[in-house]
Each structure stands twice: as C-alpha cells, then as structure tokens.
Amino acid sequence: MENLINVPEIFGSNVFNDRVMKERLPKAIYREFKELSDEGKPMSGEMANVIANAMKDWAIEKGATHYTHWFQPLTGITAEKHDSFISPTDDGGVILEFSGRQLIQGEPDASSFPSGGLRATFEARGYTAWDSTVPAFIKDNAAGDVTLYIPTAFHSYTGVALDKKIPVLRSMSAVSKHALRILKAIGNTTTKRVTATLGPEQEYFLIDRNFFLNRLDLMMCGRTLFGAPSPKGQELEDQYFGSIKDKISAFMGDLDIELWKMGIASKTRHNEVAPGQFENAPVFTTLNIAIDHNQLVMDMLQKVALRHGLICLLHEKPYKGINGSGKHNNWSLSTDDGQNLLEPGENPHDNMQFLIFLAALIRAVDKHADLLRGSCATAGQDHRLGANEAPPAIISVFLGNILTEILEKIGNGGKYESKGVSFLKVGVDSLPPIPMDNSDRNRTSPFAFTGNKFEFRMVGSSMSCAGPNIVLNTIAAETFDEFATRLEKAKDINAEAAAIIKQVMKENSRVIFNGNNYSSEWEIEAGKRGLPNIKNCVDAHKAFTTERAGELFSAYKVLSKEELHSRYEIYIDQYAKTINIEANCAIRMVKTQFLPAGIRYAGILADSLAKVKAAGASASVQADILKDVSGLLESASAKLKNLEAAKAAACDICDCTKKAESYRDNVFTLYTELRDDIDRLEAIVPADIWPVPTYSEMLFKL
Ligand code: ADP
Ligand code: MG
Fold it and tell me: What pTM did the predictor assign?
C-alpha cells in the first residue's frame, strides 16, 4: 500500500506548534513564552532571539529559504512579502539568519494598502507585529518553494489598526470579559476564560481552466457578466450531496492534505446545490485562528485547483440563475473548563445560564441587525442577499418551536409544559427544562440556532470572516455587559434571570422567526414588525456611520471612531471600484466580442438572404432572424453608449457615498440591462460563432 496516507503524521506537520516548541526550546524559555503569551505580555529581546532561531532551524530543515510576516489588510485577503534568511559574509558567502527582532516586528512599505485616510493622519509607515497566540507555519508550493509564515497584526506607528486581525482580537477580549462577568454573577467561579469559537463552511465553484481563460469577465471579475441560461440548471436537485466525480475527489483529496499539513482540521466535503458547486468545512476552533485558517482554505482552494487544471471561483454569484456561494459562520462560546455556553445544560443552573446567553444574543441581533447586515455587504453579495436564495436581506433569528415556546412562556410569566418531547429532569420554578434535541432544521434563516451554536448564514463566500465576527462579538459583548450589570446587583438570581428573559421577549422577540424566510409573506410581515430590510451594499454600509455604531465600537475598544470611519470609506470605495471594473469589462466584451459576433452572423444571414432570394425561393427565416439580430445589436449599442456616459459621470464624483450610489443606480443598472440583449443574442447566434464558453459548458463540462 504505497499510497497509504498517514493522516496523524501529516496533520500539523508544517506548523511550529506547541509540540514542536516544547521539543526545540529550552524548558525555561518555553514555560516563560507560554505564560507571557497567555497573558498577552511582550517578551524580552533575548527570548525572541531564542525562539526565532529555533523557528528558523525548524523551517530550514523543512526546506524553507524565506520567511514572511503574513497579515490581513483591509482588502479582505491576506498580504505577504518574502525575505530570504540570507546574510552575506565578508568572504563572499552567506549565512542564514533570523533574529528575534525580525520575528517580532516588520515594517512593510504599506503605502499601497487601503487605509481610508488613517495613515495619512498618523504616519506613512505600517508595522507588522507577531501574533504569538497563533503558531507560525510553513507553506510549500507545488514547485518546491518553501516559506515560513509568521501570522502578524498590521498597525500604524501609534497603534491604529490597519487590518482585520486587531479588531477581531479586541472583540474577542470584549466578549470574553463580559461573558465571564455573567458567569461569575450567577455563581460560576471556576471558569477563567471564555473564547469565541468559529467553524466556517466554505462554498465554492470549480470550472475547467480552459473555459475560465476564455472568459474575460471570469478572469477580471470572478463572475460572468453575460451568459444565457443553460437548458438544464439545478432544478433536478441532483447535485446536492451527489456522488463526487473522481476528478473532483482527486482535487478534494489533495486539498485536504495541504490543509492538514498546515494544521487545519478540514473535515467535511460535498457537492453543493448548484452544478459545479462544492463545500468544505473544518472542525471549529478558536475564532481568530478559524479566520486565519479560512483565509488559508480560500488560498489553497485556488492553488490546488490549478494543479488539477481547474479554477476555483470564490465569488458570491459566478452564474446568474443558479445558487450563489456563501460561508456559514458557525459561532459559539467555549470556556476554559470545557463548557459550550450555548449548550442547554443538564441541570437547572446550567439551563439558566444557557437561556441568559441565548436571550442576550437575541437582543443583540435585534438591536444591531443593521450592523450584521452591513458586515456582510459587498458588491458580490448584492446578487445573493434578498434575491430569493439563502439568505434574505432581513435579519431574523431562528430558534425552532420548542425554544421559542419556552421563551414565550417565561415572557408571559408562565410555565412551560412538555408536549411529549423528552426533557431533561429539572425542577426549578422560574426556569423550565430544555429538551436535549431542541432545534428543528431550517435552511432559510440568516441567523439560526442549531442546537449548541448560532449559524450566521449571510457571510459571502469570498469575504474574510473577520468583519461579521467583529460585529457579532461586539454586539454580544454589549448585551452581556448589560445583563452582567443587572445580575451582579440582583438579590435573587433566578428571578432576575426570568425578568431579563421577560424583557427580551417584550422588546426583542420581533426578530424571532421560524418560518420560511424566502417567502414574500415574510417580507411583508418583517416590514410590519419594523425589521430593517436593506437591499444593497451601499445602503447597508451606512449602518457603520451612525453615532450609535461609533459609540458601540469605541465603548468596547474594538474600533475607535476614526478606525470605524476609515473602514466605511474603504468598503464603499471598494464597491465603486468593483462596479467600475465590471463596467469596463462589460464594455470591452460587448465591443470586441459580442457585437462583432452578432455582426458576423448578420452578414451571414444577409448573404444567405440575397442568394436564396436570387435563386427565387423565399428567405423568410433568414429575414426574421436577421431582424432579431439587428434589433438586438442596435439596442445593445445604444445601451453601451449610455453605460459609457454613466461610468464617466460616476467616475467624476468626489464624495465617496454619492459616487458609490451613482455606480449602483446608474452604472450597475445599465450593464445589467445590457446583459439582457447580449444573452438573447447568445441564444440565437450559432454556437461556433459565439466567442466565449457557454453556461452549459462551464457548469457541466467538469
Ligand atoms: P451543518 O449540519 O450545518 O453542516 P455541522 O454540525 O456539520 O452543521 O457543523 C457545521 C460547522 O459548525 C462545522 O465547521 C463545525 O465544526 C461547526 N461547529 C460545531 N460546533 C461548533 C461550536 N460550538 N462553535 C463553532 N462552530 C461549531
Ligand atoms: Mg451548516
């Protein structure tokens, strides 16, 4: 069995993890390092030197020639600049060096990263700082090039966060601090730390590389801007969980090995709903690590796909008319003594704890639905959210009937009677028992309780998980803070807990919805309940410009008002730029590919028409088609002119919000309308004349 894969041996083999450190560091240094990094304290230069040296030796044994400070700027993807370990000697040779200073801090020339004006007001340089809570790792590419990756945070000279990692870490501290206060207040004195956990399920499409290379839109925008529907789409529902083709499982197998090497617990893989669509899910872990890992998953999906002659599309909506891709953000809270705070317990006290945290999340989501929505807003997401596929743009919470009834009963001051469901044996007056298997399944809710975690399903497939989790942690921290303050003062904890739940049911239960979120009735009902229904990216981002948002993020020390505003400017600017690129690409394709194809066909038809007529026969078919083709060509070229004018006008606007709105209302609308003509043209032009691969080919020739 020479192909036998030794998974335990492979797993984490490229990670400078605890085991490696224990093995390679002097005992005293290892112990001190663990203590310091647990407490988040800086280490001495001497200690950094010892660790850097051990790291370098380990990396070189693995074939590494370079190291890089790996960071997460506000682009949503990761950044890296590689430096080799070489240091020239006097005699014309080199030695390999890596100092503590090089490990701890880097100064990348960062002026080309988006900063939303932050750096200009402070200092031009950006700094990367080693995040010692996350292990360094090695990435080896297919060509045998090996690099040591050091996970870092990216900030300005004065400590302003220029990245997505710093606010994630800050928001995790906030959530931990206030969750811990609740635990203490209700009598738990053993728990020392609460950690947010995350398991992101990643959806993606695969496409044959040759098709990809023949589509400018896929290459430039990651999605098709044109394309007539395939005769068959996803309507037979034969793709979801279907048998995985050998070619695809070869890819998935390679992917798993690459991920396992980097210590990523890739666990689940399957076909998704749309043809050519798949999913990968890891075992959940500490939230910031899970975010890093998801970035690596997205990166490796693309790299490994290439080795198999495939391209991985991470865009939220590569194809019109079939499902897009998302990222289900499974979130919960773990404690250092092994509890999951969203797990109903086995005794009344634990159930009270569970219900308080559950109620807190309901309240947080209701109060700040706009921020959650805003955290998932991108140009790509506008094709998904609210477009009759998972999930709608209205934020609601799914609890399932049993939990909803329990909370309602407490809200009404009554007791919950079991309805033949198996309940845990508890007997406290004010708080009811919780059945073990308490939540039914619902696939349409944007924020679903799934037994012992919340699944936030609005996150886009190409997005960093950072933004949505920064919001989720911060809004949770705020409500935990509020409840902790009440519970700390309470004389009768049970009564206060019941009072808290009562208040939540009174003020926030409008956000609970267990029905079909895709239905039009829900949209009407949600409107009556006063729930926000924000349809597009530009409007959704405005949630971050309110006074209330500024207060929230600064109160919990997650983002200062300045940091928050910079992000608004960056994201709104990214939207405008994305639409501008799509418009450029649409114009180029129409001018150089689709109009010429149509004109060619018109010529063929005209020739045939003349010849057939000359031969004395009727050429009515040619005449009819020619009329259609000419009509579409005229219509498309008129729209093209309008599009070019609208693009120029939007481009000239200075105010970032107005600019983005102009791109949305004028530019985006125009190339969407232009698509209608081109797609109709595609449906009548001969296949051998059509200049780009079709939907049928891209989706099914895999
Ligand atoms: P589904 O049926 O929705 O696919 P799974 O049980 O397979 O649900 O879990 C999906 C994801 O949720 C996995 O990545 C899993 O590790 C993660 N998950 C499970 N428990 C937790 C938790 N306590 N915190 C965060 N994520 C979790
Ligand atoms: Mg799921």
Answer: 0.95
